Amino acid sequence: MDNAAPLLRAEGLCFGYPQHTVFQDWSVDVGAGATLVLGGEGSGKTTLLRLLAGAVAADAGTLVLAGVSWAQAPQAYQRQVFWQDPRSDALDALAPQTWFETLRPQYSGWSDAALAAHIEGFALAPHLGKALHQLSVGSKRKVLMAAALASGAPLTLLDEPVAGLDRPSVRYLQHALGDAARQPGRALVVAHYEVLEAVPWDEVIALPG
């Protein structure tokens, strides 16, 4: 990355479960562009995304996103973040089209044109009226990613994005990630177990384990 001020600064993060420390005094600066969090099963990739999203509280440490501290203004911090856990069933009763409509007023950078492009790119049109629980794992992931990329959120977090995707969708995703990462003032953080070679990563963060 260049010498520009980071969009996201995480300092001294500590987090763990009983009998298991996940992060101890862990720090990172994330700039605009595409950042890959690389790690195997159990390395803490999903936990890190939840921490960066402000979805779970660290035991210690600070998070500052575009000048907004999570500790001091958690709601203002989270308004700048798109994060949806792909393993959660919280949205399963909703149809994608209904969910998209609820997201539009939440994100000042939301783009209907981008959403339409992602719906086409992921071939989602036949599924827009179905409840998410009726979709395959891959189709549900495509819905989440279409929303994430269309949100324009300054910090956009994606967990294992290619799980269940067909090859054309993987190719489209990598192209779409590259386009989104070029948007000024936007950081995409993607957790995955291997490098997606077609994505122009600005930073790769390798987690141990």
TrEMBL record:
Pfam family, one: ABC_tran
InterPro entries in the cross-refs: ABC_transporter-like_ATP-bd (IPR003439), P-loop_NTPase (IPR027417)
Domain ABC transporter residues, every copy: 8-208
Keywords: ATP-binding, Nucleotide-binding
GO MF terms held by the record: ATP binding; ATP hydrolysis activity
Taxonomy, superkingdom: Bacteria
The UniProt record lists the keyword Nucleotide-binding: yes
Keyword Transcription found: no
Name used for this protein in its record: ABC transporter family protein
Species name: Simplicispira metamorpha
